[in-house]
User: What shape does this take?
Amino acid sequence: MTTSAISFAVGATLTRADIPALCADLAEVLRGRDRGVVVCDVTGVRPDVVAIEALARLGLTARRHGWRLVVSGGSATAGACRPSASAGSTEP
Assistant: This one.
């Protein structure tokens, strides 16, 4: 069995208002296709809270259609999505 892969690029200038349209675009691409992997290219995307929210919501969109989302091209953005060992710590 061969795993399908689809490339999906996120633009460098990303706002919260862009997220619903990005998710709708991804859903449209995935609708009716066999399961596989979405390779999300975030090259040039600023690693901020908006990028993290967009990746989380794109990941949910992919999973709803039976796909898995992997991030490429943005080590800083991908790193920002990893939970910190000190998350939730109350120490200064």
Remarks:
- The chain is about 35% helix and 20% strand.
